[in-house]
Amino acid sequence: MAANKNSAAKNGSSKNGKDGRRVIASNRRARHDYAILDTYETGVVLVGTEVKALREAKASLVDAFATIDDGEVWLQGLHIPEYGQGSWTNHTPRRKRKLLLHRKQIDSLMGKLRDGNTTLVPLSMYFSDGRVKVELALARGKQEHDKRQDLARRDAEREVARTLGRRVKGMH
């Protein structure tokens, strides 16, 4: 029994992270450039070689964004490189991929996107119980002064944590 657990961990098939999630790619820049208003967990329609490439944790969400066309949500700009051992059945790296959401969620998103200057940005892509999921965020773009304020606030919080840590250790 112990040998099976060790071999699963070596293969990378063990459950990493919280809730059985294994992160494939994350868009760290999105939290810097956008104020996140709401998040959604979506499924993705993929072909076989895309899933195999994602199992090797090869994906980039840098230029990715989502749109709603004819009542369907599409992820554009996501780069999944071709699978190394794929043949003529390989996928195109930057094709449009359909996202799976409930109809009520799509209708709600359409209303929110129509109302103001918001956009849909993918925050991360991960495996959840063997299925590829995308964490999609309804976001509003930050202006330069907002970004500076966030950086200053984060630096101040870090400095407070440092001084508290020094006091606890008795270093003043």
- The SSE order reads HEHEHEEEHEEH
Number of domains: 2
Quickly name the level 1 CATH class of the largest domain: Mainly Beta
Number-wise, the strands total 7
Indicate the proportion of strand residues.
25-35%
Question: How many whole angstroms does the radius of gyration measure?
Answer: 20 Å
Largest sheet: 7 strands, antiparallel
Give the spatial strand order of the biggest sheet: 1-6-7-2-5-4-3
Structural class: alpha+beta
Overall helicity:
25-40%
- How many helices in DSSP terms? 5
Q: What is the general shape?
A: globular
CATH T-level topology of the largest domain: Small Protein B, Chain: A
Q: Could you list the spans in which at least 5 consecutive residues all have pLDDT below 50?
A: 1-15
CATH superfamily of the largest domain: Small protein B
Mean pLDDT: 79
CATH hierarchy: architecture of the largest domain? Beta Barrel
Distance between the termini: 51 Å
Keywords:
172 residues, alpha+beta, 2 domains, seven-stranded antiparallel sheet, 7 strands, RNA-binding, SsrA-bd_prot_CS, SsrA-binding protein
Written overview of the protein:
It is a single chain. The chain folds into two domains: 13-141, Small protein B (Small Protein B, Chain: A), CATH 2.40.280.10; 143-172. 37% of the residues lie in helices and 31% in strands. It contains five helices and seven strands, in the order αβαβαβββαββα. The chain has helices spanning 2-11, 28-33, 48-55, 103-115, 144-169, and strands at 21-26, 34-44, 65-69, 72-76, 97-100, 118-128, 131-141. Strands 1-6-7-2-5-4-3 form a seven-stranded antiparallel beta sheet. The chain is globular. 21% of the residues are buried.
